[in-house]
Amino acid sequence: MDVIGKAIPDAPPDSARRRDPTGAITVIDARERAGEARDTAELLGGSASLVVQDSGGYGQSKSLVVRGASANGVLVFLDGIPLNGAGGMADLSLVPVALVERLEVLRGAAGARYGAGGLGGAVNIVTRPPSSRLLSSGEVTYGSFDTVMGHVAASGALLDGQALVLLHGGRSQGDFSYRVDELPALDDNPLTQEVRTRNDARGGGALLKYQHGLDSGGRVDLLAEWSLEDRALAGTVQNPQVSRRQDQTRLSLGGRWGRPFGDTGEGSARGFFRRDWLDVTGGAAGLAAGAQRYTVGGVEVEGRAVVGGRNALAITLAASSEDVTQATGAQSASWWRASVMAMDELSLFSERVKLVPSLRVERVGHYSLLSPKLGASADLGHGFGVRANAGQSHRAPSFLELYIRQGLLLPNPELKPERALSVDAAGLWRNEAWSITAGGFAAVYENLIAYEMYPPQLAKPYNFAAARVWGAEVEVEARPRPWLTATTSYAWTRTQNRYGDPRYFGKELPYRPRHKWVGRVRAGPDWLNARTEVLVQSEQLINRVGEARLSLPSRTWVSVGASSTFLHRPDLTVSFDIKNLLDARTADYTGMPLPGRAAYVTFAVAFEPSRPTSSEDPHVASPP
Prior knowledge:
- The structure is a single chain.
- With 624 residues, this protein is an all-beta fold.
- The chain has a single domain (16-606), classed as TonB-dependent receptor, beta-barrel domain (Maltoporin, Chain A).
- It is built from 4 helices and 36 strands.
- The protein has a 22-stranded antiparallel beta barrel.
- The radius of gyration is 24 Å and the shape is globular.
């Protein structure tokens, strides 16, 4: 297991470590980035083989590519509640960083443990836990492009349990300057400077959590999360939108019960519900617009038991229902999901070797899916270890691809599920001050869904693409002194289109940079510390033909900052950050310009700050 941030002792039953003991897992501690990151996507951007696709700064859509898999092939959860919507993609901009305690990232086949959709991996966003002590805190940030963010939180004992209330909000004009080539067909054409307009965004919401211990040694967790966002959709530089806007609201409810059974078993049951309201207005004729409502709800029951001293068996039964309604044309669709998952964690040679086979049988609508996985790990002593995994995952076509017409995009109910066959292996070394992991991975993606022209001016999705992905990953963390932390990650990723058309065969996939390196250093005590982060990402193609002139250039972003907790009881902290210090003017995804240099100042206050004990460690809180 790869850990970025503090190690997590006694992982809770729902944690990524317990779900996939041999998986390529990175845990990102958001508390160590307090007052520094603007959004959840920024926390994820420093991990190996994770590429954030950004549509234009704060509040604009952000999706995640993991190990070359498309954004709709990466599962994202909020405390176990699925966030992938009717289009199959999760928008990270809708999860503010104020909610996050840690991020658990699984790279590789996630179908066996997380279900359909996990071709490239899965991310579980674990929200802040409640406390039995009376705690309160607040934070406000102001910076470039008239960006303002803030939150307040309070936690304490309530009705023989403990509760948390958190309110958050933010806005930004997003009116940064960028450079554009008005005549891209001509070489050495001078660039002109423009200001991004209609790039504003605003939003807010609330998080409520309650936790109650039971006499049996078990616990009940309840969660309610509500968020809303209103943003302008500016479009690309070449195709700007003059009136298009999007309003989105999300309501998530979750509950989990869990308890031990003797010394060798435990059981849990969870239920969840999520409703999304999406309204798109304005824009050119023919573009998808109107109101869309997406609802998902389900239950999951899991039991674990140690059998014979060597086998730790886990069985999971899950069922859920999904429904989407599109006001345009009165379109609607719904289906059921049901699955059975079995996993065995076999320990050998005094638990120094583990074999972990798992299998999920799943029914998604009218699709029957089989997702097996085999993992293995070995403790070689003196801090050295190895792990390896091989598995198969599927992604059922999304509701929009199957049933819902969106302007000029037609649905295709004959689509087949996408499939991924993946393997990975890595070696690791760890001691009290160092953690180093290095390995490689490979995957074959089959029956990939892509849109192609459908006369006269329409587009329709078909199963015709196939791709290979392979690469290497390195993650290093060093804590040689209590006041000094350094982390770095590097990913080398190669992709190859295997579609039979000679125009595309053998070409690299678009939006998959070959190299990505991130280095980060934080030094100093609480009363004054400084940090710097460097992100280097190579150029990436934006079409399947592989024309170099149709590519997003490489980028190097340097960010610096400093923080000082200058008063205690209450704790008062001020932070100052400069993002993109060198003012690199770059673009992402479909040519969306990204902000240049930006500065932010953050002021935070915490009354009676929590100092976790063994019985009250925020990491131990199991999300509902």
